UniProtKB/TrEMBL annotation:
InterPro entries according to UniProt: Got1, Vesicle_transpt_Got1/SFT2
Listed name of the protein: Golgi transport 1A
Protein localization: Golgi apparatus membrane
Transmembrane stretches, start-end: 12-30, 36-56, 68-89
Length: 136
């Protein structure tokens, strides 16, 4: 089992509540208050989990500026009463930020008993290998 410090446990709680509020805000037809709480908690919880310096280093790398700018613009638009457009920009920004992790996630999900066969299909496996080679 992974041992977490008290600060990391607090960050996991903030991030968990952030994800909950985001999902609940989307289910309630893009309620801007819930989306705003979710965004603030999600962005606020991440530095508690991985540390402030690592958070800035991750988001402000030269190759991730596009994803960071789209994500932060989406958060700002969701807070400024444009929740649908804000969530679209946030989703694109998160996809751009974390596209390097998709091959790893695909390999992990291929070992699941129920859904593993989907990720072992040749078309998905070839795409995940091509995306993974861009990282190197």
């Amino acid at each position: 089992m992974i041992s977490l410090t008290d600060t990391q446990k607090f960050g996991v709680g903030l991030t968990g509540f952030g994800v909950f509020f985001l999902l609940f805000g989307v289910l309630l037809y893009f309620d801007r208050v819930l989306l705003g709480f979710g965004n603030i908690l999600l962005v606020g919880g991440l530095p508690f989990i991985i540390g402030l310096q690592k958070t800035f280093r991750f988001f402000f790398q030269k190759q991730k500026v596009k994803g960071t700018s789209f994500f932060l613009a989406g958060v700002l638009l969701a807070l400024l009463r444009w929740p649908v457009l804000g969530m679209v920009l946030e989703t694109y920004g998160l996809f751009t930020l974390f596209k390097g992790f998709f091959p790893v996630i695909s390999r992990i999900l291929s070992n699941l008993p129920g859904l593993g066969f989907i990720f072992k299909l040749p078309s998905l496996r070839d795409q995940s290998l091509s995306v993974g080679s861009e990282i190197l």
